[in-house]
Write a structure and sequence with these properties.
The complex is a heterodimer of chains A (318) and B (321).
Chain A: E1 4-15, E2 18-29, E3 32-37, H1 44-52, E4 59-64, H2 73-79, E5 80-83, H3 95-105, H4 110-123, H5 139-153, E6 157-161, H6 169-184, E7 188-193, H7 196-202, E8 205-210, E9 213-218, H8 220-228, E10 232-237, H9 242-250, E11 255-262, E12 265-270, H10 275-285, E13 291-295, H11 299-310
Parallel strand pairs in A: 3-7, 3-8, 5-6, 6-7
Antiparallel strand pairs in A: 1-2, 1-4, 8-9, 10-12, 10-13, 11-12
Helix pairs in contact in A: 3-4, 3-5, 4-5, 5-6, 8-11
Chain B: H1 12-25, H2 27-51, H3 61-67, H4 76-92, H5 97-101, H6 105-109, H7 115-149, H8 155-185, H9 189-218, H10 223-228, H11 233-243, H12 247-259, H13 271-274, H14 285-315
Classes of the chains: A alpha/beta (318), B mainly alpha (321).
Chain lengths: 318, 321
């Protein structure tokens, strides 16, 4: 296993009597993308700010790139780059001047800095507009400029808060692709998001936040196994009644649950691939099959199902 | 809590350089600069018109440039007393909350600097901008005086001019720190500007009146004083003490003390104080300096006090918007 760059143990944050973060443990390794997922107000941003030493933890210990952000915030901030939610820049300055300012604050020597700025702007494809004022930039360009700042800093780890917030699909795709290249360079990357299907594509591991706690954590496959309880899911369109359909498929070996998504569309969960057996059973029973398809577990579904489960919504299991 | 490592000053020079260049280039600064320049020069020009008739008789002709008021035009000093706070507030009212609103604050604080550096750098940047504006204005007036009056200033006049410059800068510093405090406390720049301007109007215009009312309530006029047709000295004393809580009063007294060498004291003069004095005779430079020393100390202390208040409240602020 490669080196752990971000680690938190028993992290807590209280605002008065309200608990924003309640005992979180997490680890992010070099060369891995770790996703923090959860509804708004679940404590993602607070966790990120504590990791950076921008807000003080009430309890718990943190080690980021070998330093404690509470005791030694400057070392942590030298080694970690941060892209805040809806990042802002000085509109009256050019992209280059904006980077120059933060680069100087980061303590990069002038000659080296100019080289790094040029290189990082090229990498996020902003070099053509590098000398334009940031006021003329679109949301996606600003977000890319934020990535350029991370590149310029040459950090070991990067923490991105909702990096795809407010971006159109094309910009989101480009941005995530760039984030992936950062990981391939050996950075440890932590990102928070609620745009799940996009996150799924690039995260190696995710943690599901709920009410200040990490509810479950692991790779997307692991989470699917835990939350959805089965390895496979099928989507079946049929004009059958729900009860009759559930009774029919309940007899098929390996099917663990059947639920109705909407009238005429069912979801079948199973421990193994049962497409053949289901089709067979339906044909034998003379039931109409309009469509039958295997469904890949999406983070979206895991997420939705997990929170439904918490709210005590029962699933139509036959 | 354990001591934090690293210097709180790290990065403050970079913040300073950025703020300074931002201020000098900003259109807001241009407007303020022209406003001060035009009204200031107008006032000085009018006083020169009058002074040209008395060039031979006055030993402190140059200082008169600053203090002389002519009909329909206030003196340069009163223009400054009005405009310096306006400029300082204009420079400082959105310094901290502006960073939050542009969403640059968390990005800047994620760089390896402490918050101290940001606040100190911003304050120093604003103060330097004020200094540039005041020095250029000061030089312009001296130049205008040389050209129109044709008399060079004496060494003492130049020394008094320098002290005046320093006092004006600390006065600006007080209002800059007030504006920065407002920008830390209020999240909206408009609210912050209103609060700072409100404090300025209150302290400059209303406070002297309120001080008088309070003094009259605390020490009602006594019979002896009434019979003699004199004010109650305790009442005057309290009124003066209260008035001096306002930086505008301190500034006014300090500049009058240094620019009008004949000034011996502020407020009530007792007969014992003028015994043996030659009426209208100027004090020496050191004596004038001594006279205004408490006022200048008060201004510097006020600046530091308000700055510390904004420092403390900024340190405790949450970074998230």
């Amino acid at each position: 296993m490669s080196e752990v760059l971000i680690e938190a143990r028993g992290l807590k944050k209280r605002y008065g009597t309200a608990i924003a973060v309640d005992g979180i443990n997490l680890q992010v390794r070099r060369g891995e993308i770790f996703g923090l997922l959860g509804p708004n107000g679940a404590g993602k941003t607070t966790t990120i700010l504590m990791l950076l030493g921008l807000t003080e933890a009430t309890e718990g210990s943190i080690t980021v790139c070998g330093a404690d952000p509470m005791r030694d915030p400057l070392t942590v901030k030298e080694r970690v780059a941060y892209l805040p939610d809806m990042v802002g820049f000085y509109d009256n300055l050019s992209a280059r001047a904006n980077l120059r300012y933060t680069g100087r604050l980061a303590g990069i020597a002038d000659l080296e800095l100019e080289k790094r700025i040029t290189k990082s702007l090229e990498r996020v494809r902003l070099h053509d507009v590098a000398d334009n004022k940031v006021a003329t930039y679109s949301r996606g360009m600003r977000q890319r400029l934020g990535l350029a700042e991370i590149l310029m800093k040459g950090a070991q780890a990067a923490i991105l808060d909702e990096p795809t917030n407010g971006l159109d699909p094309q910009s989101t795709f480009e941005l995530l692709d760039m984030i992936r290249t950062l990981r391939d360079d050996g950075m440890a990357i932590m990102l928070s998001s609620h745009i799940l299907d996009r996150v799924q594509a690039i995260c190696d591991r995710v943690a599901l936040f709920n009410k200040g706690k990490i509810a479950i954590e692991g790779s997307v496959q692991e989470l699917a196994a835990t939350v959805l309880g089965g390895g496979f899911a099928l989507q079946v369109d049929s004009s059958m009644e729900k009860m009759a359909f559930a009774a029919l498929l309940g007899s098929v070996n390996g099917v663990s649950s059947v639920q109705a998504e909407e009238p005429g569309r069912f979801r079948v969960l199973s421990v193994r691939d049962v497409r053949d057996a289901v089709a067979q059973a339906m044909v034998n029973a003379g039931a109409p099959i309009l469509r039958l398809a295997g469904v890949e577990h999406s983070l979206d579904e895991i997420y939705r199902r997990y929170f439904e489960g918490l709210e005590g919504v029962t699933h139509g299991t036959a | 809590m354990a001591r934090r490592s690293g210097s709180p000053w790290k990065g403050s020079d970079i913040v300073f350089a950025k703020e300074f260049s931002d201020h000098l280039r900003s259109p807001r600064m241009l407007v303020l600069q022209w406003l001060i320049l035009l009204t200031g020069i107008g006032a000085v020009f009018m006083s020169i018109q009058g002074l040209r008739t008395t060039t031979a008789s006055d030993p402190f002709l140059f200082l008169r440039l600053f203090t002389d008021a002519r009909e329909s035009m206030p003196s340069f000093l009163s223009v400054l007393a009005f405009l310096i706070p306006l400029m300082a507030i204009g420079l400082g009212f959105d310094s901290i909350n502006g960073e939050f609103n542009r969403r640059t604050m968390s990005r800047i604080l994620a760089q390896p600097i402490y918050r101290d550096a940001l606040l100190i750098g911003k304050f120093a940047g604003g103060l330097a901008t004020l200094a540039i504006a005041l020095v250029s204005l000061w030089l312009l007036i001296i130049g205008l005086g040389l050209y129109r009056l044709g008399v060079p200033p004496s060494g003492e006049e130049v020394a008094r001019g320098f002290v005046f410059l320093f006092v004006a800068l600390t006065y600006g510093g007080v209002w800059l720190s007030v504006a920065m405090l407002c920008s830390v406390v209020c999240r909206s720049p408009a609210t912050s500007a209103m609060a700072a301007l409100g404090a300025w109007l209150l302290l400059s215009l209303l406070w002297p009146l309120m001080g008088r009312f309070i003094a009259e309530i605390v020490y009602p006029a006594n019979e002896v004083a009434l019979l003699l047709g004199l004010p109650n000295p305790q009442q005057i004393g309290l009124q003066q003490t209260l008035a001096r809580l306002s930086p505008a009063t301190l500034f006014g007294e300090a500049v009058v003390g240094i620019l009008q060498p004949a000034t011996r004291t502020f407020g009530v003069v007792f007969a014992s104080q003028v015994r043996g004095a030659v009426a209208g005779a100027p004090l020496s430079f050191m004596q004038s300096l001594l006279l205004i020393w408490p006022q200048v100390t008060g201004l510097v202390a006020g600046m530091i006090f308000v700055f510390s208040a904004s420092y403390m409240s900024f340190q405790r602020q949450e970074v998230r918007a």
